[in-house]
Amino acid sequence: MRRNRLIRSNRKKSLSLLDRFLDIKTLLAFSVLMVLFFQQQTNHIVQAEHLEPAPAINQPNTFTKQHLNPLGSSLIHNDIITSEDSDTSVQSIKPEYNIETLLPVYHWQSVTIKKGDSLSSIFQHVGLLAYDLQSILKLNKDSINPLLNLKPEQTIHIAIRQLDSGKNLLEGLQLSIDNINTFYLERIEAGYHAEIITQTIDVKQRLVRNNISSSLFSAGSEAGLTDKTIMELAYIFGWDIDFAHDLRGGDQFKLIYEQHYLDGRYIGDGDILAAEVVNQGKTYRAVRFTDEEGKSDYYSPQGESMKKAFTRTPVPLSRISSRFNPNRRHPILKTRRPHRGVDYAAKTGTPIIATGDGKVHFIGNKGGYGRTVILSHSGRYTTLYAHMSRYRRGLRKGKKVKQGQVIGYIGSSGLATGPHLHYEFRVNGIHRNPLTVALPKATPLPKKYHQSFQETALPLLAQFTSPSPTQLAQR
Fold first, then answer.
1. Distance from C-alpha of 123 to C-alpha of 121, rounded to nearest angstrom
2. Quick check: pTM over 0.85?
3. CB burial class (10 A; 0-12, 13-18, 19+) of residue 473?
4. Rounded distance, CA 218 to CA 95, Å?
5. Which of 3, 101, 406, 451 has the highest Cβ tally under 10 A?
6. CATH assignment of 65-198, given 3.40.50.1100, 3.40.50.920, 3.40.50.300, 3.10.450.350?
């Protein structure tokens, strides 16, 4: 019996030692696992401090595209509103975007752009490293164009995350481009993502009419039109009417155009939808039409293009100071020299537009012409623009230009008594009077669009003859 008790006692001791051994083994295994875990976390922190692309952080305050535009494309929805001016129902899109949805978990710094600033100098100013700049510059240039073309007085807002090492990591930035467009950059797992978000606006139609007593510009300003809208009106009818010298007493205009509002605040004018000008007893009408490819242009009620291959004048809102005259006496040289063009007087710096599509044949100083641009149009036609104060930036020989595109600015370079543009029009090298030369027509509206065009045009044109009250010479 004693022997059996001794055996059982030894067996209990053996089991107790075995249990202790297993407990120690478990503890050692757990310790090894904890060492490996902390080593992994340490490596992760070190990598972050060396500015390797950081993975997305799974926390509710992460700077993400959802916070920039949490509703995505579903943000846009259509309502119908009524214009306070013309009682015309138009499509409207109400803004719901709220910049406050950008979460404040990061340290935000705002920098106002000054002349000479660049993205590099701004990053240095806020303590960001060159690594972030290099990562951004690897993106498609078109996608980061607003950052590459910073303008004075713009404000850039920068979201910065401070690492334990004291270094700053760029998480995102925001740059307002204009009233409705904002550029955003955000950190993602693979680097950075850039996009432009456009806030939607309310669009209202406004019908305005006024008599033209002295000039289109003064009549338009009196009616509350912006300079942009007046210039657009002059351009639409510029192939048929020379607003510098064709206006007469009794002339008048009417137009329906868009006004843009953001959060109930007027932010600018949109496109002219339809317009009418009565000049010397003749009525001209134009309607804007957009085809299925998204191309917009102006057409007469019959579907004829308002465009011709050339406009009559390269400076729509100016006055003619000297006409085409083969026997004119030169005002400076005091000799009889042919004046083979038309002079348009305007203040220095007034934009000069190309009267037709073409290519720059010559740009530079040309004797008495001063700073001059000569455009070639399909080989047969050439136009000359002289006495400029300066050329449009980037214009050079061989560059293509579009009709209506600014090519330079009014000046008095060369032999000139004051600021004006000397404009010449040549056909097969022979000078022609720019005011009377027959201009080739542009392509009319394709027949497949005629029905759709009429559906657009008729309701708009009906407002011009409607007896309903409209605004006259007031905003």
1. 6
2. no
3. middle
4. 35
5. 406
6. 3.10.450.350
| pLDDT tens column, 78-119 | 332 233 344 333 333 333 333 334 444 678 889 999 988 888
DSSP track, 338-371 = -B-SEEEE--TT-EEE-SSSEEEEEEEE-GGG-E
160 contacts 128 by C-beta, under 8 angstroms: yes
Q: Which residue has the tokens 């020989």?
A: 397
DSSP string, 39-105: HHHHHHHHHHHTTPPPPPP-STT---HHHHSTTGGGG--EEEEE-TTT--EEEEE-----GGGS-TT
Report pLDDT for 330. 55
Question: Angle formed by the axes of helices 119-126 and 130-137, to 10°?
Answer: 150
- Average pLDDT (252-280) is 93
Q: In the chain, which residues fall in CATH 3.10.450.350? A: 65-198, 202-308+443-472
Residue whose structure tokens are 């530079």 = 364
Residue type, 462: A
> CATH top-level class for 319-432?
mainly beta
